[in-house]
Design a protein that fits this description.
alpha/beta; 234 residues; 6-stranded parallel sheet; globular; 11 helices
């Protein structure tokens, strides 16, 4: 995607007033172009093929195809199109289903508009974006699944993890480790900034550095990697 061009967006939600609100948010921001709107899952799949947007903002509960099915169809047919789920659901079943379907991000509908705008920018540029509350759900489920492994599998995992338990000081700065621990608690960039008395922009820069050093694409992967290395506890 040409970073100088506006981010091209398709909105998919069966509630007209909500879609109009989303359109208004992005019309007030620079760097976005709303290409079209869909009211059901089948329509958004068709629009994705016809319009080739950079990002589809997708609801889950829609007629015809639901958001999970529509996401899978879009990612199978047009893998370059990013899908950001915007849903009322924060339970693990929906979260894991959409991620397995190929979604690039997951936000709750009560999110602040500036967070939504930033999420679309990041997703359009290839970075996964997960709502902090959703991140905690994912980490909790990961912990549950880890504890549910058989003894043999658990032992094998523990052996592999032990190999990776190098000292965090070999890779991260003290400040980055502080931020990583707060990320493991599910705190947002804003809350981390308030906790450490630094700006949200500074937090974002540190998070980007952490992801790069750990070789991962998003915050959830960073926390899971740190947990496997014994740097944080979930």
């Amino acid at each position: 995607m040409n970073l100088q061009s506006p981010i091209r967006v398709v909105l998919a939600d069966d509630h007209t007033l909500f879609r109009q609100g989303l359109r208004r948010i992005f019309e007030l921001e620079n760097g976005f172009s709303i290409l079209g709107e869909a009211t059901d899952g089948s329509q958004v799949v068709s629009l994705a093929g016809e319009l080739q947007p950079d990002v589809v903002i997708m609801d889950i509960n829609m007629p015809e195809k639901n958001g999970v099915e529509a996401t899978k169809h879009i990612k199978d047919m047009y893998p370059g199109i990013k899908v950001l789920i915007l849903s009322i659901h924060d339970d693990e079943a929906y979260i894991f289903e959409t991620i397995r379907a190929g979604a690039n991000g997951y936000l709750l509908k009560d999110v602040e508009s500036e967070v939504l705008v930033e999420a679309v920018r990041q997703v359009a540029n290839g970075t996964a974006f997960i709502h902090p509350q959703v991140t905690m759900k994912l980490l909790t489920e990961f912990k549950r699944l880890s504890h549910g492994m058989t003894n043999g599998t658990a032992a094998a995992e523990e052996t592999a993890a032990a190999v990776q338990r190098d000292s965090w000081q070999d890779l991260l700065t003290q400040r980055e480790m502080e931020i990583l621990r707060l990320m493991a608690e599910g705190k947002s960039n804003r809350t981390i900034g308030e906790t450490l008395f630094i700006s949200e922009k500074t937090v974002k820069n540190h998070v980007s550095s952490i992801l790069g050093k750990l070789g991962v694409d998003d915050r959830t992967q960073a926390v899971i990697t740190a947990a496997r290395r014994g740097w944080v506890r979930l």
